[in-house]
Amino acid sequence: MSNNYRLYSPKVMRDILHKYGFRFSKGLGQNFLIDGNILDKICDGIELSKNDEVIEIGPGIGTLTQALAERAKKIMAIEIDKKLIPILEDTLSNYDNIEVINGDVLKLDLNELIEDKFENKKIKLAANLPYYITTPIIMKLLEDNINLESIIVMVQKEVAERIQALPGTKDYGALSIAVQYYSNPEIVTIVPKNVFMPKPNVDSAVIRLNVYDEPKVKVKDEKLFFKVVKGAFALRRKTLLNSLGSFGIGVGKEEIREILKILNIKENIRGEKLSIEEIAKISDMIYELNKK
Ligand code: SAM
Fold first, then answer.
1. What stretch of H or E contains 116?
2. Across the chain, where does the E strand assignment appear?
3. Residues assigned a catalytic role
4. 31 CA: nearest ligand 1 atom
5. Atom 1 of ligand 1 has which residue's CA nearest to it?
6. How far is the CA of 117 from the centre of ligand 1 (A)?
7. 274 close to ligand 1 (CB < 6 Angstrom)
8. Comparing C-alpha atoms, which of 2, 16, 133 is closest to residue 63?
9. pLDDT in tens, 217-247
């Protein structure tokens, strides 16, 4: 590639796609960014500096990768689509701080990769995520205890709203709690459909997850905590008493009633009103009861 090209330029992108006879795969969530302002917002959003090492998931033809490489020390980009690998070799050939790996992010051992490829400091992660697997990717990044300082991702707008939602709002649910257990989420900007090629059917949002060193609440049994979360939201219009009491977590309705009484929580409360701290307390009390 010649110097000074911008991969987000629709003309440059069309020429590259044409040169390689590339066809977008809807199944792989391929919608490439064609707006330099959004790229800046993503880079500014994780406060990139020349010392930062960054993982990118799904580089596409390298639009975001190029922007990241110009501001950070090193980028490792993981792309599942084999057809994009020779294209990326071409589009990013002017950068010596980018390594592209062909693989499925959900199957890779990211901790191992980080140990191999980075100097093992705290890593930042940036991605315009494929929408069909947004939630599993985010949960893998958070649950695998990867040494990530912050995560900035483009996701469907509704998903970003659910991630950031607070108790008592319509978007609050198991996903809000799961992500907020590990991080403090913050929507950076809403992104309209027309900054992608091809244009998706939905609006998007860039969301930053500031990952905690320790989870937000300390629980006695993490597995049980997440089971309680699942149970609390499994039957959305039912009270917590009814949904948890029949959810198979080892305690029945009467015991849940007793727990709510001790915690001074109304008996007819619904799961969507409970804070993460309250769910942690309920889960710890269930844990103690199960031990007896
Ligand atoms: N970063 C590019 C951009 O902003 O223009 C492309 C973003 S596009 C929404 C998502 C990218 O993720 C595609 O390149 C797609 O092939 C890739 N992808 C899809 N599933 C993946 C997976 N499981 N692991 C790694 N990459 C994946």
1. helix 110-117
2. 32-33, 53-57, 74-79, 98-102, 123-128, 148-156, 183-191, 196-197, 204-211
3. 58, 79, 128, 131, 196
4. 9
5. 59
6. 21
7. no
8. 16
9. 999 999 999 999 988 888 777 888 888 877 7
Nearest-atom number in ligand 1 for the CA of 81 is 16
Which CATH code for domain 10-211?
3.40.50.150
**Are 163 and 134 contacting, i.e. CB atoms less than 8 angstroms apart?**
no
| Pocket lining: 130 vs ligand 1, CB cutoff 6 Å | yes
Tens-place pLDDT, residues 140-178: 999 988 889 899 999 999 999 999 999 999 999 999 999
- Ligand 1 atom with least separation from CA of 8: 5
Residue having the nearest C-alpha atom to atom 18 of ligand 1? 58
Domain ranges for the chain: 10-211, 222-291
Q: Dihedral sign, CA of 264, 265, 266, 267?
A: negative
| pTM tops 0.90, yes or no | yes
- For ligand 1, the distance from its centroid to the CA atom of residue 105, given in whole angstroms, is 10
Distance CA 109, CA 17 (A): 31
Three-state SS for 17? helix
Element spanning 163, H or E: helix 157-164
Which fold is adopted by the domain 222-291? Helicase, Ruva Protein; domain 3 (1.10.8)
